[in-house]
């Protein structure tokens, strides 16, 4: 089998040949995040960066909804995802028909859709949000009630922070729903003084036990600015691995859960994707135009 170094060299060469850039989410493994990615970040940053890519090819090292968002925002580029099965439990929890049903049940209430959804679901929405801007989007609408889908816990966390009434759906992130308040209490006992940062996809009782809740980029910024002696990131495992390599003076306690979808992306998969120019992400024009509008409205706020 080729070594990591051989895979990395081959990918760097293929990127040059194909005029490709690699956008990688914060949950990608360190060899992808630190050695082959051109741009790294949370869902919001990857969407913003995708818009201004000038290269011919965008390879998305992340999950399918992220690749679709890149294609929506930069439609003339070839967007590749190394594994078409890299999905997301949230994206799978809701269909366009479900949104139409909710609209009919709550006429006039705006539909805010988390980016962790298919383009077809985005197309039924008024505006999108990510974990990095959800509060701003919900407050910015200036209405007392919103439909916020499909992550029930994210919606409950935002409702508590903003006072806006939220109609939600029963989608959950299979990684973050597994954390419990008892996990946090236990790690505080074992690591006195540890600072606990939780992702807002965690259940509200978990977020309530944390010192801070925010998107993966917000966790990154917190560690970069405060350099805590000891920190626990209540999220996917690669997050701590990637930050630990950047901040050796910070001690990372690691009570993490793996995302099986993010972990489908590997160096050999990226190499094969660039070699064979697969798997290209396409979106039907009648869906793309409406979905793009919802994402662009989000980016304009
Ligand atoms: P972020 O937008 O915070 O990076 O989250 C994306 C995701 O999939 C979290 O589970
Ligand atoms: Fe989806 Fe959760 Fe995996 Fe993020 S971590 S891609 S929300 S299943």
From TrEMBL:
CC cofactor: [4Fe-4S] cluster
Top-level taxon of origin: Bacteria
Pfam family, one: NadA
Record field: catalytic activity: iminosuccinate + dihydroxyacetone phosphate = quinolinate + phosphate + 2 H2O + H(+)
Pathway(s) annotated for this protein in UniProt: Cofactor biosynthesis; NAD(+) biosynthesis; quinolinate from iminoaspartate: step 1/1
Gene3D superfamilies referenced in this protein's UniProt entry, alphabetically: NadA-like
Binding sites annotated in the UniProt record for iminosuccinate: 25, 43, 114-116, 131, 199-201, 216
Cofactor note: Binds 1 [4Fe-4S] cluster per subunit.
Binding site for [4Fe-4S] cluster: 88, 173, 259
Keywords: 4Fe-4S, Cytoplasm, Iron, Iron-sulfur, Metal-binding, Pyridine nucleotide biosynthesis, Transferase
Subcellular location: Cytoplasm
Molecular function per GO: transferase activity
EC number, as in UniProt: 2.5.1.72
Signal peptide boundaries: none
Role: Catalyzes the condensation of iminoaspartate with dihydroxyacetone phosphate to form quinolinate.
Family: Belongs to the quinolinate synthase family. Type 2 subfamily.
Name this protein carries in UniProt: Quinolinate synthase
Source species of the chain: Roseococcus pinisoli
């Amino acid at each position: 089998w080729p070594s990591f170094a051989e895979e990395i060299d081959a990918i760097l060469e293929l990127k040059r040949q194909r005029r490709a850039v690699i956008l990688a989410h914060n949950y990608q493994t360190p060899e992808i995040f630190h050695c082959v990615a051109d741009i790294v970040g949370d869902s919001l940053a990857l969407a913003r960066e995708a818009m201004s890519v000038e290269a011919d090819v965008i390879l998305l090292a992340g999950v399918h909804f992220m690749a679709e968002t890149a294609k929506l925002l930069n439609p003339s580029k070839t967007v590749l995802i190394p594994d078409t099965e890299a999905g997301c439990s949230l994206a799978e929890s809701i269909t366009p028909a479900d949104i139409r049903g909710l609209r009919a049940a709550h006429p006039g209430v705006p539909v805010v859709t988390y980016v962790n959804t298919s383009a077809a679901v985005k197309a039924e929405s008024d505006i999108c949000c990510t974990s990095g801007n959800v509060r701003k989007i919900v407050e910015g609408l200036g209405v007392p009630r919103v439909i916020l889908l499909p992550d029930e816990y994210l919606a409950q966390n935002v409702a508590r922070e903003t006072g806006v009434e939220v109609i939600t759906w029963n989608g959950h992130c299979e990684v973050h729903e597994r954390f419990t308040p008892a996990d946090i209490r236990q790690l505080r006992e074992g690591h006195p003084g540890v600072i606990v940062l939780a992702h807002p996809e965690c259940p509200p009782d978990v977020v309530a036990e944390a010192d801070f809740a925010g998107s993966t980029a917000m966790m990154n910024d917190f560690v970069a600015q405060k350099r805590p002696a000891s920190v626990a990131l209540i999220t996917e495992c690669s997050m701590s691995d990637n930050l630990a390599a950047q901040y050796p003076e910070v001690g990372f306690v690691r009570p993490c859960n793996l995302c099986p979808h993010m972990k489908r992306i590997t160096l050999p998969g990226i190499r094969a994707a660039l070699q064979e120019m697969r798997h290209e992400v396409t979106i039907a024009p009648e869906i793309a135009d409406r979905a793009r509008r919802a994402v662009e409205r989000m980016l304009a706020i």
